[in-house]
Amino acid sequence: MGEVNLFERLLVVVGLLSLLPFLFDILVIDAPNQASRKPKSGRAESKERRRIDAKRNHGLSQMYCPIPNISLDEKWQRYFEEAGRDVHECPKQRKLGVVVSLSEHEQLLVPMKGTCRKGALKFHYLDKSTFEFTSVVVEKEMLMPSDSGILRCEEEGNEAVTLLMHPIFNHEKYQRAKKIEEDLWKGGGDGAAKFKKYHEQPNILFIMVDSLSREQALRSLPVTLDFLKKGDKPGVGNQFQMYDYERFNVVSSGTHNNVPAYLAGKKYSDLQNWLDRDTNRSEEWILEEAGRNGYMTAFLDGEYVGSKSSLPRIRLKTFEHAEVPESTIKTARMIAEQMADHSVHSIFDKVLEWSSEPQLHSFGTPTKRLCFGGQSIFSIFANYVKEFWSSYSHVPKMVYLSVMDAHEPSMLRARQIDVELRDLLRSLLRISVLREIFVVLCGDHGVWYGEFYEDTKAGRLESKLPALFLLVPDEFASQNAAMAAYAKHNQPKLTTPYDVHATLRHIINLHKIGEGTPPSSPHALSLMDSFPATRTCQDANIMLEHCACTEFAPYDEELLNGLELRSLGGWAVEHINEGVQRSTSGGLTEEKTSCVHLEFGSNLRAESLETELLDDEVEGDSLVIIKLTTRGSALVTNETFEAVFVRKLFPLKEGLRPGQK
The pTM is what? Predict the structure, then answer.
C-alpha cells in the first residue's frame, strides 16, 4: 500500500493557447507520488476568515459566491480606447451572379455577363442525396438547386467567387406547421385556448457570437446594445425590454461544451454517454423540438462542418479527433442538413478552402471583418435570415445563427459587425407584424487565448463570463406577466447555457395548456421561472475551475521552479503528446503521428484555488493551474499551454485510514 498524496489522482485539462487555440482536450492521468506543498503562512486562518465573511455577505446579498469586479489596468484601458471604431470594408469584387425570386417557390440564379468566360463559371453546392459537393456549369439563368452555394470562375488568372445563400421555400414543411395549427383549432375542449396560445407564441432569434464575453459585448457592440435598451422609434415595429445577465457563467471549457448546453441541455462529456450512435437521439435538441411544436426552423452556422468543434462533429462524438475519415465528414454533413428545416453550414467547408482572405485561415488580420468574395459574411447571413423571416410570416419561426466574428485574440474584430447586427434586429422587429420576436444574443465563452487572457486577471475572468442579453416583447410580457417578471428578477443571479436551453423549451411549449413543459435537466432553470435565492456553481453543474466565483492565488518563484510543479508540468506535456497521438490517428494509439514530439520547457505561472464554495468546501491545493512552455524541434517554435490539475479523492475502503489506498 502506498501513501495517497496530494495529487494521487489528477484530472488534467490541457488547452493550447497559441498555435492551435481551437485544440482542447480532457485527459485523466495517475501522477507519481510527490510530497504535497506546504501551506502558505497564515493561509488556513485567512480561508476561515473568508468563509465567515462570505456567509455574512450571503446573508446580506442573498447570493452565493459574488463574482469579482472586472477591472482593466491602464495599459488595456488605453488599448481598447485607442483602437478606434473604423469600419473596414470588404475588398471590392464584382458579383459573379445574383438570385432573383420568381415566387415564394422558385428562385432563379442569374449569372452576370462579362465576369467569366463561357463554360468556366460553375455553381458548387452540397448534393442532399449523397452529401458530397457537386457542381453545375452556369451559362444562363437557372433555378437555384440549393439554399446555398458558391459561384466560382474556373479560368486561369481569374479566382473570383461569390457566396449565394437564399432560403428556398419548403412547402411540405410549411404545411406541417400549418397542420399543427389546424389540429389545435379542431381539437375541441381546450383546443381553442391552445390555438390562441399558439398564435401568441413569439418567433425566436438565437444569435450566438463565438467567444463574445459580456465585457467585450459592452466594448464592441455599443450601437446594438443602445438600440436594444432604447427600442425602435415609438409606434414603429415591436416594443420590447432587454435583460442583461451579468453573472452568466460557462458550464465548462470551449464551444464543444457550451453550445450543446444551449441546444441540447448537456455539455460534451454528458453527450458522449447520452447520444446513441445508431439513432442519434434528438428528444431535447431545441431546434428539433421547436419543429415538432409547429415552428419553421433554420440552423445557420459559420463554422465549417469539418472543424472538430462543429456541432455535427460533436453529435458524432468525434471532437477528440483532429483528423477523421471522409465518411465521417459526410455523416456530419448529413446531420448538419437535418438539424432544421433550413440549414446553412456545410458550404463553409468550401468557403474556407477557396478563400483568399487571410483572416479566414488565421488570426493575422483580426481587426478586419470576415469577408468572402467581396461580401461581409455576416451581411450574407443577415440577408438570409430576413428572407427566411418573410417567407414564413404566418407561422412561428426559430433561427439559430452562429457567427465567428469575435473569435480572435485582439478583441477588436467584433466591432465590425456592430451596425450590421443592429440593422438586422431592427429589420426583423419591423417585419414581425404577425408575431412578436424573442431574441437571445449571447456568446459561448470569452476569448481564452492570446495576450489579454494570458497576462491579465480580467482576461481570464472574462473567458468564463460570456454575454447573455434577452429581448422580451412587451405584448408577450403583458400576456405572460409572471414569466416576464422572473426574466427581469433573475438578471443578477448565477445563470448558465443550461438555463437558456430550459428557457427556450419553456417558450416553444407554451401552447400545451394543461400539459406542462417537458422536464429539463435538474440543474437547468428557465430564466422566466423562479430561481432559488441562493445558487452555487455546484448547483448549476459548473465545473469548479470554470466557475467565475472562484479565485486563485499565485505560487511564489521558489515553488514555481520546485520539483513538484515542474513534475506536474512534465506530466501535462506527456499527456499533450498522447492526446495529439490519439487525435491524429483517429483514436488508435499504436499508429504513428507526423506531429513533432514536445518536451517540457518551463513553468511561466502557477496558481492554486484561493476561495471555496460554501456548500462544498475544497482545499486550495486541490486545484492548480499551470501555464507552461514546451520545446519541439529546431523547426518548431516553443509553444504555450495551460494545464488544470484537479485532485480526485477515492472513497476510503473499509478498514483503511485516510492517506492509504
Answer: 0.82
